[in-house]
Amino acid sequence: MVVFTKDFIGYLEMSEIDYADYPKDKIILLKEKLICRDAQIVTLLSLLGEPQHYSYPSFFVYGHTATGKTYVIQTLLETYKFPHIIVNCVECFSSRMLFEQILNQLQGNWLSSENECISYLRCNTLNEFVLLFKQVVREQNLLNQTVYIVLDNAEQLREMDANLLPGFLRFQELAETNVTVIFISEIVWEKFRPNTGCFEPLTLYFPDYSIDDILKILSHDYPPEFSADFYMSYINILLGVFYTVCRDLKELRHLAAINFPKFCEPVQKGDVSEVDTRRLWRNIEPHLKKAMQTVYLREISSSQWERLQQEDEDSGHLKGLSAHAHVELPYYSKFLLIAAYLSSYNPARTDKRFFMKHHGKIKKSSFLKKHEKTSNHLLGPKPFPLDRLLAIFYSIVDSRVTPSANVFSQITTLVALQLLTQVGHDDQLDGPKYKCTASLDFIRAIARTVNFDIVRYLYDFL
User: Fold this and answer.
1) Which of 40, 152, 285, 445 is deepest in the core (most CB within 10 A)?
2) Secondary structure of residue 242 in the 3-state scheme
3) Span 442-456, pLDDT tens digits
4) How far, in Å, CA of 169 to CA of 157, rounded?
5) SS3 212
6) Of 190, 180, 186, whose CA–CA distance to 205 is shortest?
7) How many Å apart are CA 57 and CA 65, to the nearest integer?
8) Has this prediction a pTM greater than 0.70?
9) Cβ-contact 136, 23 below 8 angstroms
10) DSSP state, 9?
11) Span 88-102, pLDDT tens digits
12) Are the beta carbons of 386 and 380 closer than 8 angstroms?
């Protein structure tokens, strides 16, 4: 059995990249598909070896999201036609589902109504899985080849049975078969290692793409009707705006795709040449600033974004894509937000006038002071204590609500959504204070969904 030490892997990564020992046609294909991952390709090829060679029992591949871990490993296994199974652990919330996916992928069975699930293998325990795996390998004539089991999003294994991770780490020994398990994760191995100890896998790190790497990768997506240099200048502009806040290759690729039609629009109309980057930048700048509001959110599809951009062009101004424009809140969260808005924009002494039944007639002019002649909405939201928020909430909600952790957790959610802002420090003795950051239009839209006339309760509209 050939064993590769960690020192040997480090040597491979640091040494000069040499493809002389591998078929030239496949190397050219890999370099076209796997851009800026030459060091990882050589390391993995050295570890995988030939199909008939014994491989190391388990590898642990880790790195941040969108660094090409799964894509590189899948492309290598498919290019060299190694027998392999790739399972996304997010889709398998139990060990039984994980075992069955591996076995049936290896056997070529898929759960469907057409085959009436007759040949679909069932498996419940690790012992049963080992026996069935050996049986399937024998039936598929794979005894003389290395079988690779790739577990993507492997951090999910920590939430499953305690014997699952140690079992997969030394699965080659348990199955007495030439099989290698490859774990792919976004967290480091030290977060996986059980307290009781286990077999140590070989670890391989995928570093983040640099800005030059991202530029090179995204530039390969240029449309055939435009030159590569023109599209590269567009990617340069895009990265100049988004790279400081987003390093995710998938998200940057999505942003590049949805904003490029607006960038090339003046060129298609004949108003600007491809080399006039200054005028192209002035045209695309406001659209990129609006797109900055929804990085990672993916609130709308690309087609909806294009339609919205066209509507903005027709109306002569750009509309934002803020999450506040079409947010969905639970029932009581809406009343909490309305209560927070009333607390921020109504003076505290007017609460008796708005929320008590027998308050008597109080004219606005009778308690209007000089400094209150300015509208509260022009002065902005004022901080309010938690007790006042809850008192108004219990007054306006149309059903009896008992104070519970659920109510307080919804306040925390509103803060996380940036609809409320906590004022002051967490350790203050007089209780937390908040401000409502939502706009009047947004609050009126929320109030309409619960049939609450908020204007009647606002001091500025008396």
Assistant:
1) 40
2) helix
3) 888 888 888 888 888
4) 12
5) helix
6) 186
7) 25
8) no
9) no
10) H
11) 998 888 899 999 999
12) no
